[in-house]
Amino acid sequence: MDSFTAIILAIFLPFAAAIFIPLLEKFLKHRIGWFAAGIAFLSFALIGIVAPEIIHGHIIQHSIEWMPSIGAEFSIYADGLAMMIGFIASGIGVIIMSYSNGYMSHKEDLPRYYQYLLLFMGSMIGMVFAGNTLQLFIFWELTSITSFMLIGYWRGKPASVYGATKSLLLTAGGGLFMLAGFILLHAITGSYDIATMLQNPAIIENIKAHPFFLITLILILIGAAAKSAQGPFYIWLPNAMEAPTPVSAFLHSATMVKAGIYLVARVHPIFSGTEAWFILVSGIGIFTMLLAGFLAFRQTDIKAILAYSTISQLAYMMTMYGYTSYHEPGLGVAAATFHLLNHATFKACLFLVAGIVAHEAATRDIRKLGGLRKDMPITFIIASIAALAMAGIPPLNGFLSKEMFYETSVEMGHIIGGPFTFLIPAAAVLGGVFTFAYSIKLIDGIFLGEKHHDHLPEHIHEPPYTMLVPAAFLAGLVILFGLVPSIPIHNIIEPTTAGIVLEEVHLHVKLWHGFTPALFMTIITFIAGLAIYTRYDNIAAWQDRFNARYPWVSVNYYYDRIVDGAKGSAKGFAGFAQPGSIKLYIYAILVLMVILFTIPLFMMTTQVFSVNLNFDIPFYESVIMILMVVAAIAAATLHRYLSAVIAISAVGYLVSLMFIYLKAPDLALTQFLVETLATIIFLLVIARVPQTFKEKIPKNILLRDIMISLAVASTVLILLLNATQGIVPPFESLSHYFLENSVKLAGGHNVVNVILVDFRGYDTLGEISVLCLAALGVYNLIKSRGEGE
Amino acid sequence: MTTLITKTITKICIPLVSLFSISLLLAGHNNPGGGFIGGVMFASVISLTYVVFGLKYTKSFFNPSWDKLFGIGLLLASLTAFGAIVFGHNFFRSAVEFIEIPFYGEIELASASLFDIGVYFVVIGTLLHIFKNVGEDK
């Protein structure tokens, strides 16, 4: 199998498997989770097949034409960066799906759960390997949508629905800004292709010099920040914690929230090394790191702590990717990348532990927990490893990447100079202090101290192995990456960094690196962290007073006001635009049609009626036409529904007869059958309503109706007269093309059908989708009528 | 309408019209016909039995889940469109091939026919789904 096929399979296998899950569920029952985990493993293995090639510095590129005329292609761009996140998405996917077998109750709607998970995983893998910005956007929004479905998995809970809506509004909305940025990039470079932009220094120079540079960068960064919960967009992530815990572990710590970071890394070569890049990316990063770190420390729910800590850890990465300057092309990139990998391991592990604790102790409130170390010793050890890694304690992997963070911060401070020499490292240390404090708080709050017997069940025990082993595996990775950093560094971090900075990179990461400034900063972090942790009550009290006094200093406050306001105005608009009377809709449609047809007609043709009218109509046809007119008048004037419906179908049948005379058997047959079915449906409906019109139509309304009918009829007449004579100058008849090419290109002699299924197949696909939606709409209309009202 | 004559004629018509709808579907590429018209033809014969014999009787011998049918049709149609990508062409590129079969002669294999079959299922499924729901409504 060549590498391209392997990557395509890795992307689409989860999508294909998701389709078959409802079928397989009949045989596998609650073991369906293992099937999903198997699919995730296959994707992982498929990426593993191509990994050696990528590690050796080869970039796999290939594209399939999709809509060549607008530059949209389906292309694959697989470098180290894509490979790393692809590995994380599928690898953590295996762990999460295995763990879910123990976490999710067998009574729940498991097929839906695993379908969403697989769809999400496929979208995520598709996004990282996307070689085209439009394609990246599509998969990006797919991850937002699947995340929305997963957060709202418990549809009955209002909090789930609120959290899901919030995340969709913010992340998918941010994606639209990103799309605008991509379109501007296209305007500058003339390409949607990522490889073209990255591999062409001239294009990059051009982008950096372009007047649209700043606005493009800001638009793309809004998308990235919204997805990674940075800056003011952080508010969706805590609410997303309403999702089942494995989902949070997967989406909201290990994979989806990293999509924004991935995007920043992906566009790094294009935008980095400028003032704007440093100020925006590092600025957002530092601000978010401090804010979220402080807020995390204040939470009492385990998942809330983890949510805010995720935000602040992602901010570390943002900050480091922003460090790249003129003088130091790749400063911070390797550190950020390493931290990204480490964070995926320890944070996913912590979430799994949170799930275990909630599962066994039936609460996630840290004030009620405590003293669980005796009941759950294995979980305690796993949790401690992960939390200490997050705190940055040697010899765990978090220590290494945090040291690199401090080192690069010191360096960046020196490069900028002035007061920033100390401000930037100080901000980094402060972020680390909060991280240390909340990491300690997690362990202390759950496992140490006295057990609160009045809040907790008497017998708490270790979870089943399906939940314990995945968490233990991640904890093992944390230790492995810490003790033997050369494994991840050489195999993953170096190719990834090379993919970001576009040159070969060699890194040396060791546990003991001498008495450097970073080491002293770490020591300060530990001392200050402990100090802050002991002062916890005072800080909490201060913040409560502050929040009570200034409720408007909160992004959530504005979010809720905007969303509630939008709901109100949407209601008002719907009331105005959809009054509910079918008559009004038909007026609107017809009048608009008349306007849209007549205005261009008058603009294009100087003499509307200057047509050589050819009234040479054969006898049979004129008889049919007269009958049609009679039937139409009958339909309008008859006073019983039944007779009116029959008159209408008479018009339809006469039209189909007309088609036969005009030598269009296809149309005649269709018209005939559709007319029959429509009549039957009409009859089914009118069997249930009063048989005669009761209402008297007032004179003025009747007059208005007649006016509108006349206007429509004369518009159509004029249009037909013009069209049949072929006198609309700028337009030519399309039929020649189809007549000439129908046999040549599609091998079919029935031109009408060839147009439908070959030349305009895309249209037909859209139409049959609409048909399906219409059927579902009818179903809903009829079924929902009895309920509620 | 449920006289003996209509009942007898309907019973004769059902298999004939069903076969005719399939022949319309397959002939569509070169002669009058196609997925849409074939589907409507099939739906009309089912609705004929409904009008003559009533919903309950119709369901007793022919009651697939129509909503699934249009799902399958839509899937088939989209897979045909994606199929071209597997062979390295544009999305929705259609292909046509002529094959010689002994004793029968040349037949035409067009990817568009697969697409047409998808359309056929969607049309049948949609129409009969609507029918069933309107007819069942109390």
UniProtKB/TrEMBL annotation, chain A:
Domain NADH-Ubiquinone oxidoreductase (complex I) chain 5 N-terminal stretches: 66-114
Recorded superkingdom: Archaea
Short name of any one Pfam family annotated for the protein: Proton_antipo_N
Domain MrpA C-terminal/MbhE: 704-783
Annotated ranges, domain NADH:quinone oxidoreductase/Mrp antiporter transmembrane: 130-416
GO cellular component: plasma membrane
Entry keywords, A to Z: Antiport, Cell membrane, Ion transport, Membrane, Transmembrane, Transmembrane helix, Transport, Ubiquinone
Subcellular location: Cell membrane
Membrane-topology annotation of the record: Multi-pass membrane protein
Molecular function per GO: antiporter activity
Domain MrpA C-terminal/MbhD intervals: 626-691
InterPro entries: CPA3_Na-H_Antiporter_A, MrpA_C/MbhD, MrpA_C/MbhE, ND/Mrp_TM, Proton_antipo_N
GO BP field: monoatomic ion transport
Record field: transmembrane: 6-25, 32-55, 75-101, 113-131, 168-189, 209-226, 277-297, 304-324, 336-357, 378-400, 420-443, 464-484, 511-533, 584-605, 617-634, 641-662, 668-689, 701-721, 764-782
PANTHER family according to UniProt: NA(+)/H(+) ANTIPORTER SUBUNIT, NA(+)_H(+) ANTIPORTER SUBUNIT A
The protein's name: NADH/Ubiquinone/plastoquinone (Complex I)
Organism listed in the record: Methanohalophilus mahii (strain ATCC 35705 / DSM 5219 / SLP)
High-level lineage: Archaea, Methanobacteriati, Methanobacteriota, Stenosarchaea group, Methanomicrobia
Automatic annotation (TrEMBL), chain B:
GO CC, alphabetical: plasma membrane
Protein's UniProt keywords contain Nuclease: no
Topology of this chain in the membrane: Multi-pass membrane protein
Domain Na+/H+ antiporter MnhB subunit-related protein: 5-128
Primary location class: membrane
Originating species: Methanohalophilus mahii (strain ATCC 35705 / DSM 5219 / SLP)
Transmembrane spans: 12-29, 35-57, 69-92, 112-131
Domain of life: Archaea
Pfam families given in the database record: MnhB (PF04039)
Subcellular location: Cell membrane
Keywords: Cell membrane, Membrane, Transmembrane, Transmembrane helix
InterPro entries reported in the protein's UniProt record: CPA3_antiporter_subunitB, MnhB
Name by which UniProt lists this protein: Na+/H+ antiporter MnhB subunit-related protein
